[in-house]
Amino acid sequence: MGYVVVVSVPVILFIVIVALAFYLIGRANGRREAVSAQQHFGPPVPPPLQAQEKSDQV
């Protein structure tokens, strides 16, 4: 003898909608933090080309 678990369709849809919302919010936060994060590992980033051209002319 076993148990039967009944889950309604609105509950399943609600869970899917909430999961999708958390996914989209988390992705947006991650992209925002990735742009503002400093580079901690690896070689330093060279300056932009405009700064190099101005230093050569001076």
Could you characterize the architecture of this molecule?
Keywords: Membrane, Transmembrane, Transmembrane helix. With 58 residues, the protein is mostly helical. It has a domain at 8-37. The chain is 64% helix and 0% strand. It has helices spanning 9-36, 49-57.
Low-confidence stretches: none
Helical content (DSSP H or I, runs of 4+): 55-70%
Strand-pairing-aware structural class: mainly alpha
**Main sheet overview:** none
The total of beta strands comes to 0
What's the N-to-C terminus distance?
Answer: 88 Å
What is the string of helix and strand elements? HH
**Global geometry:** elongated
What fraction of the residues are assigned to beta strands by DSSP? under 5%
Transmembrane segments: 6-25
Keywords: Membrane, Transmembrane, Transmembrane helix
Region (Disordered): 36-58
